[in-house]
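At this stage, I wrote out one protein, both as residues and as discrete backbone shape codes, and that material follows here.
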Amino acid sequence: MISLGIIGTNWITEQFVKATDETKSFSLTHVYSRTEAKAKSFIKDLDKKDITISTDLDEFLSMNFDTVYIASPNALHFSQAKKALENGKNVIVEKPSTSTIAEFTILEKLARENHVYLFEAARHIHEPIFKKIAEVVEKHRDELSGATFSYMKYSSRYDAYLAGKNPNIFTTKFSGGALYDLGVYTIYDAVVLFGQPKKVDYDAEFLASGVDGSGSLTLSYPKFDVNIIVGKTKNSYMSSEIYFGRDTLLLDNGGDIRHLDWADDNKNVTDIPTTKSENPMDSEAVEFARIMNENDTETYDKLLKYAQIVNRTLEQARISAGLVFEADKEK
């Protein structure tokens, strides 16, 4: 089993570790945290034993384990992933892996030079339900005429922001906002299903902190457009849709997809059977481990290309909206 170190002791790292346990894909051996107390609490909650703790990042990355999973604030992804790759670690980094396409290009180059893997953890594209969507799209590709993806969810940190606090997810310092959180899922939807867009336009609703609380994005393709609605300051229960002329594939949303329907011209709606794991990170854990164990370079290169296009599209969207991160000033 592949030995695993993690950066970040939050709910998403806990969910990923549970996924690796359930699927027996990785084995947690090392934990990095800024404080030893947090690391110990995290390990206790997972009922783990014999886990090595470090509060020094350089020391942590010099330790003997194969792969590091990074789930820190967005703006820290690049520097931490860069150090990990330089230390010969395989890297699984939460989406978005970087704040700029320049940063992503550096990480991609380092991974190849050091003969290690770099994965962006866009977990939903590995799930059986997304693969079913891809099958339907491929079957009806000749009729494909556009899509609308919606993913709006009131953030658990927004009340703190409104109260005058400064949560990382709502600051330009940490590359926060709706597009770089929930919007990543919907851009992955478009890129994996339809390829690289020809043009990107983002109309953002800005918060006083400088990040986008919500917004609407248009990805233009040669024969159709994809319209995307994202937000962290309000809830939406709108379905997402992929259009095939008279018929429509319905997704319950554009990110955490749980149900599919097919609607025809006569308004007949048919359920499309599929499966969904209780832990949405199971599928990506299995796939990343499989690629490494089998040295499946074909699939790996495809995933890396998706990540490259997504990160480029994110930056193009930001530029079109005038959304500036502190990471941009470090170029």
